[in-house]
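Q: How do we represent a protein-ligand complex in a form that can be generated cell by cell?
A: Start from the inputs.
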Amino acid sequence: MAAPEAFVIVGAGLAGAKAAETLRAEGFTGRLTLIGDEPERPYERPPLSKDHLRGETEDVPYVHDESFYVENDVELLTSTRVTGIELGLRELLLEGDRRLGYDRLLLAPGSVPRRLEVEGGKLDGIHYLRTLDDSRRIGERFGEGKRLVVVGSGWIGAEIAASARQKGCDVTMIEMASLPLERVLGPEVGRIYLDLHRDNGVEFIPETTVERFEGEGSVERVVTKDGAVIETDFVVVGIGVAPRTGLVETAGLKIDNGVVVDERLETSAPGVFAAGDVANAWHPFYGHNLRVEHWANALNQGPVAARAMLGQDVTYDEIPYFFSDQYDAGMEYSGYATEWDEVVFRGDVAGREFIAFWVKDERVVAGLNMNVWDVSDEIRELIRLRRPVHRGELTDPEVPLSQLIADSADDAAGPEMPDVALSAWASEGGS
Ligand SMILES: Cc1cc2nc3c(=O)[nH]c(=O)nc-3n(C[C@H](O)[C@H](O)[C@H](O)COP(=O)(O)OP(=O)(O)OC[C@H]3O[C@@H](n4cnc5c(N)ncnc54)[C@H](O)[C@@H]3O)c2cc1C
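Then emit the C-alpha cells for the protein with flavin-adenine dinucleotide bound:
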C-alpha cells in the first residue's frame, strides 16, 4: 500500500483517542486529525456516574495528557462538529462551511441518550448523563434529603441511584421491567441488584413508566402510567442510548442498529472504518453482528480499527466485557447471553461475593463476578472453549477456574457449540 497521507478520526472519545495512539505507535507518519464536538480533549466516561459524579475527585479522566497530542503530532480539533461526509470526494464537511479531505476515515462518534418524549419532558431539572458537563450539573444537585427520581434501572440509572444515595439523596427508581438490569442480566441476578438497591434505601417502582412530568418551570412531580404521583427536586433519565448515526445517514453507508462493519471494522465504503459504541461489527466468534456500548469495546476496537486503516490483517473478536460499581458492589461481566438454561452460582450470594455463570447446553456463555477479582480472563477463556462444564465444579469455589478450563479443554466428548445467528445486541440500558 502506498502510504496514504491524511487519516481523519471523527469522534474524540475513547475509541478515537486509542485509534490515534495506535496509528502513531504503528508508525503512521502522515497527517492525523482527531475531531470532536466537545470542548474537552478525549476523556473516559465511566467515572461520570461514579466518583466524579459524587464529587470525590476533581480530576478529569482524560485518556491522554495534553502533551500527547503535541508530541505525537495529532491535530486535535475540539468544539468542532463534523456535519457531513462526501464519500465520493473523500471529504468531510465541518461546521462553518469548512472542508477537510481524507485518505482513510474512522468514525467513532459514540452514542446519545435516548430521550423521554412525554408531557413536561423539557422542564428544568430533568437531566440526562453522557458528558462531563452533565455529570457536573447532576452532581451539583446531590445533597442530604434532596429528592431524586431516576427513570430507568439499566447501568446508568442504577449507578446514578447508587451515587445519589451515597450523597444522601432520597431516591426513587422507576423501571418498566420488574427488576433492575433485568434486560441484560435476567431475573436471577436482577433480584440481587434489587436487594442491593433496597438495602441501600432506594424505593424501586417496577413495571411502570412516566406518564408526564409536572412543575412550574422546573420539575416538581413525576406522574407514572399507573397514576402514582412522586414529588421530586430533580430527575435523571437513563433509558438507554442510541448510536450516533445521524452524520452517516446521508452519506450512504450501511446502517442497521449502528454503522455496519465487518470483522476488520471496515464499513460498506472501502477506506472508511467505525469503532466504539456506534459500530455494529461482525463478530466471528458469535457468527453475527454485535454492537456493544461499553468501555472495553471502545478501548479495544479503536486500536484494531487503526491497524485495519494501515492495511494490517486484523480481526476484532474480543468476548464482550464490562464493569459496574454500585455502593460496595463492584462487578465485571464477560460474555453475551441472550438465552440460557440456568444461572449457576459459586460463592457467597447473600454476602455479594460470588461468580454467576450463565449456562446454555452445559456451556458457559457468560459470567459475572461480584466482589471477586482477577477471574474475568478465565471466565472469557471458559466461554471461548465452548465445551461442556461439570456443574458441580462450576459451583465449587474450591475448584480453581483454571482446573475447569483444563478439564473442559480435555473433554473430548464435548463437540464445539455451533455458531448460532442471534439478533444483534441492542442497547441494553445505556452504560
Ligand atoms: C456516565 C457513563 C458511565 C459509563 N460507565 C461505564 C462502565 O462503568 N463500564 C463500562 O463498561 N462502560 C461504561 N460506560 C460506557 C462507555 O463509556 C462507552 O461505551 C464509551 O464511552 C464509548 O466510547 P466511544 O469512543 O465509542 O464514544 P464516546 O465516548 O461517546 O465518544 C464519541 C465522541 O464523538 C463526539 N462526536 C459525535 N458526533 C460527532 C460529530 N459529528 N462531530 C464531532 N464529534 C462528534 C461525541 O461528542 C463524543 O465526544 C459509561 C458511559 C457513560 C455515559
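The longest strand covers residues 353-360. The chain is about 25% helix and 25% strand.
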